[in-house]
Design a protein that fits this description.
- This protein is α+β, with helices and mostly antiparallel strands and 248 residues long.
- The chain has 2 domains: 2-92, no CATH class; 105-246, Lysozyme (Orthogonal Bundle).
- It is 45% helix and 11% strand.
- The protein has a 5-stranded mixed β-sheet with strand order 3-1-2-5-4.
- β1 (2-8) and β2 (11-16) form a beta hairpin.
- α5 (124-139) packs antiparallel against α6 (144-158).
- The radius of gyration is 25 Å and the shape is globular.
- Residues 113-122 have a biased composition (Basic and acidic residues).
């Protein structure tokens, strides 16, 4: 992990890198893999020219490394003041766009649909079931595309209706999951939140690269349908519903 330390007059400014290039020119410290030699020499020259106490510099670097490694990224991303050896330190980071409240088109559908699309005017219960699916995805901090994929699957399997009576052997719930094949008990599978969680568990376990696949291919690895490409006809409907749910 890299921590940039810049000095401006009598104040320290630190910045964390999150996998992106930033134009900051003073010094580089590599934490915890030892000092970058060029950065070490630059720090030494800055120290000599500005007569900054070594204890202050060490404290700044230590504070930044500790904060970054301890997982306190929420406060760091917002920018907050810290006192280090009597000096004001502000940690900055570019705030990420909230993909849950402002999903971009590419977040919802990484590739444009290729098949004819079906349309549904959901009733209140169907909206509630879709919201349950999206809530589980959001609680797990999964990509928005996972919500689109799950809602599209439920649209094809049940039209977002919670099937409490078994169909096609013993299939139940929003995703037509079967107790006999280990998905859960009938009571669990007719709980929309549980059913969505079971679907997402299978998605992550069986198709970890689902974001790089067409929707129907990712779903087919889980559902094993006789008509796998039918999932693709719900992509736009699912994306529209997920965007609507997240915007409210």
């Amino acid at each position: 992990m890299l921590v940039w330390i810049a000095f401006a007059r009598d104040r320290f400014t630190a910045r964390k890198l999150c996998g992106q290039s930033l134009s900051i020119t003073v010094a580089v410290v590599r934490v915890p893999n030892g000092c970058d030699r060029v950065g070490e020499r630059r720090l030494h020259r800055i120290h000599e020219s500005m007569q900054i106490p070594r204890i202050s510099l060490a404290a700044v670097v230590g504070c930044c490394a500790l904060a970054l490694c301890s997982g306190n990224t929420a406060n760091l991303a917002l920018g907050s003041d810290r006192l280090v050896s009597g000096e004001a330190v502000r940690i900055y980071d570019d705030p990420p766009r909230d993909a849950y409240t402002r999903p971009a088109p590419a977040d919802l559908l990484p590739r444009p649909p290729v098949d004819d699309q079906r349309h549904l005017d959901p009733d209140p219960q169907q909206w509630d079931n879709a919201r349950s699916i999206v809530a589980v995805v959001r609680a797990r901090a999964l990509p928005v595309y996972a919500a689109v994929l799950a809602v599209a699957t439920a649209l094809q399997e049940s039209l977002l209706e919670n099937l409490t009576e078994a169909v096609d052997c013993d299939s139940l719930g929003l995703f037509q999951q079967r107790p006999s094949t280990g998905w859960g008990t009938p009571e669990q599978l007719t709980d929309p939140a549980y059913a969505a969680g079971a679907f997402l568990d299978a998605l992550l376990a069986r198709v970890p690269n689902y974001r790089s696949l067409p929707l129907w291919q990712a779903v087919q690895a889980i559902q094993a349908s006789a008509y796998p490409q039918r999932y693709a006809q719900w992509e736009l409907q699912a994306a529209t519903m997920v965007r609507t749910i997240l915007s409210r």
